[in-house]
Amino acid sequence: MFVISIGVNHKTAPVEIREKLSFSDNALPDALARLLNYPVVLGCVIISTCNRTEIYAHVTDVESGLETIRMFLQRKSGVEPALIKKYTYTSAQHKTARQLFRVAAGLDSMLLGETQILGQVRTAFQLAQKFQATDKVINTLFRHALTVGKRARTETGIDRHAVSISYAAVELAKKIFQDLTGRSVLIIGAGKMGELTARHLVANGVSGVIVSNRSYHQAAYLAGQFGGRAIKFKELPHYLKAADIVISCTAATHYVVRAPEVQKLLVHKPGKAIMFIDIAVPRDIDPEVGSLPGVKLYDIDDLQNVVDNNLMERKRAALLADAIIDDKVEEFARWQGEQYVVPTITALKKQGEAVKQQELDRALGKLGALSVHDRKVIETMANTIVSQLLHTPITKLKEFAMTGKGPVYQEAVERLFDLEDLEQAGRPAIPQPLQAKEQPKAAGRH
User: Fold this and answer.
1) Annotated binding residue at 43?
2) Which of 60, 166, 294, 306 is a Cys-bridge partner for 196, taking CB atoms 3.0 to 4.6 Å apart?
3) How far apart are CA 22 and CA 336, in angstroms?
4) Per-residue pLDDT reduced to its tens digit, 361-376
5) Can you give the residue ranges of the Quinate/shikimate 5-dehydrogenase/glutamyl-tRNA reductase domain (predicted)?
């Protein structure tokens, strides 16, 4: 048996190629069915996200499988075969397992450790199962991947550190207020960064949203996204006192929030903290604001420092996640190897059982009448002898299954015991031995 993968991502292909090779949700059932129509493909899953398209397949032959899937992609997309070969990356056997496990763990994403991809891998697998596109090998591969993805997050905490400016602001807000439930935010400026930060804050419990912008129409539009309220820019000083968190990101060339204004509003908020997040360059908020009692002021450099530190934490966690992946790749490779020798082991046990039963019947026939106890003792002895004789060759077959000597030992057992031709029983292809850890040919994306 062979598992292979072929894919494109934001690092290997431009957007005009990626969009042609992507699959919509509605197109996936037909695509899976078409893949299974090729005799070389025994099972498959298609993962298609905003930055990645990857096909994982169980095939009867590596080269034929890769060539078949390239042809499938060419017919689907209209992209020239030479360009598909140029922009796609491929893997086989344990490299395929490592590639998928890194994807599921978030180590192959545009944003290291991002969480969404694990759900996307799960959804792709479930869809393939629903349309009966998977088989035992693909099922085992993807179940290992989902386990790896979950363990990588729970055991390393790789996704617990904010690595975007907007979410870093949320992380700082949680340190100040602990619980953001019921807190209010004032957004100054209706730009994208302010909107993203507000969106993260609302997702974490902030309920009151006020938006102020020089264009009241834009303020009203953004406030409507959060069920909030828009105010005119000249009303800004009055509403500062209503906010626990103030986010400012305008294109102004001067301060839009000054220290004297904030000092006045603090009279109305005795003993209460207020957080200012200045994402603008040039800065919107007078740096003196940060020296006022009860005020926490963070500018874009502060947020970037949080992001940089958190990214280092994610990289450290990624090393731990790689160790988890190594273990699972070895476990899957061992399982693969055992599947190859299963027909030999089955035939060996069948032959042992046949010889045992034949000789047992002959011996019992010569002994004549026996008590139930004596008969059971003899049968147990015969079973034990056969089990002990076959234990060593079976154990050794499993041990050598994923080494270069695996096929040699398997063939030797079949010849020594004169087993039947097992090719007719649908023996899987000889698996490649597991090598030292190797990285995928190209990094992925989510």
Assistant:
1) no
2) 166
3) 30
4) 999 888 888 899 999 9
5) 171-306
